[in-house]
Amino acid sequence: MTDTTTTSAAAGTPELTEQERAEDLDMAQLKQLVGLVEYDESKDPFPVTGWDAIVFVVGNATQTAHYYQSAWGMELIAYSGPEHGNRDHKAFVLKSGSIRFVVKGAVAPDSPLIEHHAKHGDGVVDISLEVPDVDKCIEQARRAGATVVQEPENVTDEHGTVRIAAIVTYGETRHTLVQRTVDGATYDGPYLPGYVPRESGFVKREGAPKRLFQALDHIVGNVELGKMDQWVGFYNRVMGFVNMAEFVGEDIATEYSALMSKVVANGNHRVKFPLNEPAIAKKRSQIDEYLDFYQGPGAQHLALATGDILRTVDELRKEGVEFLSTPDSYYEDPELRARIGEVRVPIEELQKRGILVDRDEDGYLLQIFTRPLGDRPTVFFEIIERHGSLGFGIGNFKALFESIEREQDKRGNL
Ligand SMILES: [Fe+2]
């Protein structure tokens, strides 16, 4: 696949974020894990440092927080709820490597989260981004016609001050922009003002690794038929994101379903957003199914980066996490095998686990997809291990979609 990145990789060495530094990640690792690149931030009208947090609304945050610890090896670090003056909802903050998840569930019977959850089910409500200058971003967003739903404001507690604003993106999803250094002082609380540090009594199984994933690689957004280019344009125009790769309908089509996908990324490529729309095919595509059950556009999958996908998948399976199966024919197809070439482990080890391989001119990647995380066939996770490739697994899409369609058929939605 061709990388059609239009940025110049000139000046500007990317710096580690606070979260990355705190987790002992280094630049070489991040280049490998998520394909980080150098770029000149000073020319960016909407500079983005990286992910700040992914905020989920769920039916039961108390239990979901336990699931992310027990199954996904995440660490509980902060909390906000009625005990601390937030009477509306409970919010648990979990981290793994450089990424934070926040899971929110309604407490008050009239919480707006109830309506959101009734409509969408469990899902991502906020893809929150860390930025060095909130006001600069909001000025640019407004100039480019974005909807600002929260004006820049300072929020303070005993740990310091953060400056926050928010804009809307596809569906009922928003991007909260978080500036963690204000007037030279960096906020040092566990997450945001209003949250208190929280530990958990949960103890990992003996021998379990410190963490199962180190970073977030990309988040895919599903949008309606005919709307993909509009959202690509939004990220180009409003947020200065660049086009990374371009797929067309035929590339990602099976006999039954088809979709189109384009990928945009921020300057340093920490934040990557593939955007999908359904394409016309014999039957309803998996994107149509998502749009029906999520009741509109939303985040479809989050790709979690690991340096050892075999171990990560083995550990997740031990905890009962379920993955999509891959047909044996995928590994035995001579054409595919030739294209895959040499990878760091024997193909048999991948086949045993159903891990997919894709290769392009820059290298290869290993990936696997979970079943939907909640009750609705909507949001799921991908586990990804990159070896030079900056792609998203286009060569796997057909194999993957056939596998997804088998599942879709079982649910009676094909
Ligand atoms: Fe993906």
UniProtKB/TrEMBL annotation:
InterPro entries given in the database record: 4OHPhenylPyrv_dOase (IPR005956), 4OHPhenylPyrv_dOase_C (IPR041735), 4OHPhenylPyrv_dOase_N (IPR041736), Glyas_Bleomycin-R_OHBP_Dase (IPR029068), Glyas_Fos-R_dOase_dom (IPR004360), VOC_core (IPR037523)
Keywords, sorted A to Z: Cytoplasm, Dioxygenase, Endoplasmic reticulum, Golgi apparatus, Iron, Membrane, Metal-binding, Oxidoreductase, Pyruvate, Repeat
Residues the record lists as binding Fe cation: H218, H301, E382
Membrane topology listed for this record: Peripheral membrane protein
Cofactor note text: Binds 1 Fe cation per subunit.
Domain of life of the source: Bacteria
Family note: Belongs to the 4HPPD family.
Protein name: 4-hydroxyphenylpyruvate dioxygenase
Species this chain originates from: Marihabitans asiaticum
Lineage start: Bacteria, Bacillati, Actinomycetota, Actinomycetes, Micrococcales
